[in-house]
Known about the structure:
Blueprint: E1 5-9, H1 14-17, H2 20-26, E2 29-33, H3 36-43, E3 49-54, H4 63-74, E4 79-83, H5 90-102, E5 105-109, H6 115-133
Parallel strand pairs: 1-2, 1-3, 3-4, 4-5
Amino acid sequence: xxxxxxxxxxxxxxxxxxxxxxxxxxxxxxxxxxxxxxxxxxxxxxxxxxxxxxxxxxxxxxxxxxxxxxxxxxxxxxxxxxxxxxxxxxxxxxxxxxxxxxxxxxxxxxxxxxxxxxxxxxxxxxxxxxxxxxxxxxxxxxxxxxxxxxxxxxxxxxx
Length: 159
């Protein structure tokens, strides 16, 4: 399997820098793009991928949300995280979160943003992405698969 990648579509280098140390330890590639076309090209590479999209809710163009919708349609296995460093009211944050989730984001992060939060979200999504990319016989068991008792199989389920 090819090395997993984290693709960062952001206005600056801050978001990508938050993941450099983790990516080096995990042997992931971190690829940054400033234009939507370049980001789409990086996502065509068939490998486990997590996409971080920096969005500015105050920006009327909403290029990140348009890209999110395109990516979700073209590559639904790519786990997308929308990140904003803009402080919003509770009502606006809720509306933006709902829109991003509807367009295919798995998570939406708002301030305060910290390296541990970003690393935890990305590492969890990457683990799931890598697990999906492995043949079933080599994939590690998911925690939910261990010790689960299916009452329907035991004939104990309600009719």
